[in-house]
Amino acid sequence: MTDDVSAGTAVPPTSPPRPTPPWLGAVLAYLRRAPFAAALAVLVIAMGFVTGTFLGRFPAELAAGEGTTVDQGLWWTPFTALLFGDSVVGGLLAIALILTAGAYAERTLGSVRSVWVFFVTGVLGILIGVGSQALLVSWGSQWGVLASFDLVADPTIGTVGLLMAASAFAPTLWQRRIRVVGFTLLLMFALYAADSDSVFRLLSGVLGLILGAVLARGTVRPSWHRSSYREVRTLVAAIVGATGLGPIIVLVSGSWYAPLGLVVSGFSPVEAQPMDKSCVQDFTADCTRQAAAILQSGPGPFLISLVPLVLTLLAAWGLRTGRRAAWIMALVVNAAVAVLTATAVGINDLLDDKARGNLLIEDGIAMILAVLVPIGVIALLLLTRRRFQVTAPRAAARRFTATVVGAFVVCAGIYVVIGLIDGDNYLDGQPSIGELLADLVRPFVSPGLLPDIADAGIPVDGAALVVYQWIGVPFWIVFVFAAIRLFRATHVSSLAIEEARFRALLRDGGGDTLGFMGTWTGNTHWFTPDGRGAIAYRVINKVALTMSDPVCPEGAERDTIEGFIGYCEAQGWSACFYSFHERYLPIFQSFGWQYMSVGEETVLDLPGFELTGKAWQKVRQPLNRGEREGMTTLWSTWHDLPSRYSREITAVSEEWVAHKKLPEMGFTLGGMEELKDSDVGIFLAINKDGGIEATTSWLPSWTDGRITGWTIDFMRRSDGAMPGIMEFVIASAALHMKEQGAQVMSLSGAPLATKPGEEAPDPTVMSRLLGWLGEMLEPAYGFTSLFRFKSKFNPRYETIYMAYADPAQLPRIGMAIGSAYLPEATPKEYLALMQTITNRGGEH
């Protein structure tokens, strides 16, 4: 009976579980990683409606300030002020910062620690700020009195403290970015806006920095040594840009009482009344002020007043890409602002005993700060000047100069001509050409940065006034667009054509495994008269240092080399052939040239490549381990990479550079810029979570237009990567290349290395020099250890050589090679290199 009932009962089919939508999965993952940030954002939204700040009301009894916290004794306000924004805009900005910077800090510190760090830094920052305001009020300070009217409700105060505390645990690269950019912005807001929120945020940030250092005490952290050129440029551009944004903060906030609000007074629009008729008879000081107001009123003068800000932001944009012209612009603008600001704010009053007695302390501090800010930026630019060496072609520079000078001549000519034609509308009648030329600069410069106007040459109506107010606007528009064009100009014409010709010869089969390095920035290309042969080289200290093998058809090697030597002799250079293979040695031997080994290239022949046998055990084990751990690989080019991978590679590379106080090497060793070439292959090792464990780049070599070989160049591993990750990625790359039909994989040359088991040749002056250099650089750059690593892959070795004609040129050649490998190292970096050599040399 039971069986019959069971048989007759309909059992509904089990439906497969509905897949989780991607957006929901992302939200749940975010909540798992940053529950405090998410909860705080929800609380801020709820408090915005409960308190009424999202509805246009403001609960003073919950906001912190000298009036509520101190005078009224509302002790809870430093805490409640961290839970809601003072307006809809303030609340939304706070939520955005919490969900981004706050979430990052929480992932770094942990949720529990983040909760108390947020409140400790926020509450203490408010208490210290409110206490300072009360103290200033008791002293009768103007700043203290004005700030005491502020009531603060701002969750970003605690968020900033949380972020700065978390920076102590951040990777070196992000630690630098967070602190430098963060404190620059905090300081600019405090100086230019000077509202209590900005000051409390700065105090909270400082407290967070101190608290983070205490929390991270005892934690092993990589030392903070240096930044790559790209990182330095980004940070300097951010600082310059922040100083340019400062005056805009004042214009938006209206905080004229801020320490640097005085500087921005000239940037604000001016409302003017018609001139008193009595001024025609007696031009008093009040008439001068009325005339100045007329000249500075309206949209034209207001736009002119913004020119220093626009130029500063424009310079920051150019600095980000290392533009020398942008560096010069930033330097000139800040120097002009420093000088003109000192004149405009009355810095001379500080030097005059009688005038100084009438100044408030705050006024004196504001005057000094107003000048110190641009001077500080100038000092920063001078200290980092070597990082901004990207120059525009001469033609672009000439075009910029002609455009700017032409625009100024045209605009100035219009100003002078209209002044002569419409002289009746000048206060004192027709001005002379001399008076117009003497006052020529004024229509083109922000009125707030110039001394008071003189009695003569003041247009008060008609075309003369319109031209005076507007003639500077078209000039600066032309200047800005000309500067943008200059910053974007590159040495494309001849260099790009030569590089394309050289690359075409490589595709025909020249250059061997190292030839692609000749396409890198810094090299120049010489071509044979028939265009079928070429040599890549760079001239350093009158030494023409070649790169890799000559690129030429078979049988044309001698003619190509002889042609280049003749070319160098005609230029007055000493030719030095560097990093060429052994098959070219007979040619130089026939010349009677000196030659020597400068390294060993490790090469794998792919057609018979197998990871079998005991000799491959050290490579096979990491490969098997990676497969067990779910490691995958990706072959791509930079432009085809998913954006998240390209960002991750950049971050890993910057982090790697930031850990080192040693200069990056160049010449035959590529970096991030060389990685981005569209012909360069990128091979990644990716863990099961989708993160990059290791990055390698591969330079192609061709035979009759078909890629038949790859040479490794760029190698980076992520922090915490699987042990043996580089063995995994290189072995995987070899198997992939073999499958694609490549014949050769080169693990590149090991500079200054010697083939295992080979007897050293008879010593020469240069061999002793390079041998000593290799021993000295080994502790710093690990050439020998890198060479030993490559030997795990059981390669065949190909010696690479250097040849030179005149032994008397050895000192100059040695210096040229050193400059090629360390092209832009600073004295500080050379000192760090010597310290590394000395310290590690002592350890061995």
What does this protein structure show overall?
Helix content is 55%, strand content 10%. The protein has 844 residues and is an alpha+beta fold. The chain has an eleven-stranded mixed sheet with strand order 1-2-3-4-11-5-10-9-8-7-6, sandwiched between helices. Helix 30 links the parallel strand 9 and strand 10 (744-751). Helix 7 packs across helix 9. The longest helix is centred in the first third of the chain and has 28 residues, at 111-138. The radius of gyration is 34 Å and the shape is flat. The N and C termini lie far apart (89 Å). Mean pLDDT is 78; it is low at 1-12, 350-359, 776-782 and 836-844.
Task: Annotate the secondary structure layout.
Blueprint: H1 2-8, H2 22-33, H3 35-51, H4 66-71, H5 77-80, H6 88-109, H7 111-138, H8 142-147, H9 156-166, H10 172-192, H11 196-215, H12 229-253, H13 285-296, H14 299-305, H15 307-319, H16 324-344, H17 348-351, H18 353-356, H19 361-383, H20 394-421, H21 433-438, H22 462-470, H23 472-488, H24 493-507, E1 524-527, E2 534-540, E3 543-546, H25 557-571, E4 574-581, H26 585-591, E5 594-605, H27 617-628, E6 632-636, H28 643-658, H29 672-675, E7 681-686, E8 692-703, E9 706-717, H30 725-739, E10 744-751, H31 765-781, H32 783-790, E11 796-804, H33 810-821, H34 827-843
Parallel strand pairs: 3-4, 9-10
Antiparallel strand pairs: 1-2, 2-3, 4-11, 5-10, 5-11, 6-7, 7-8, 8-9
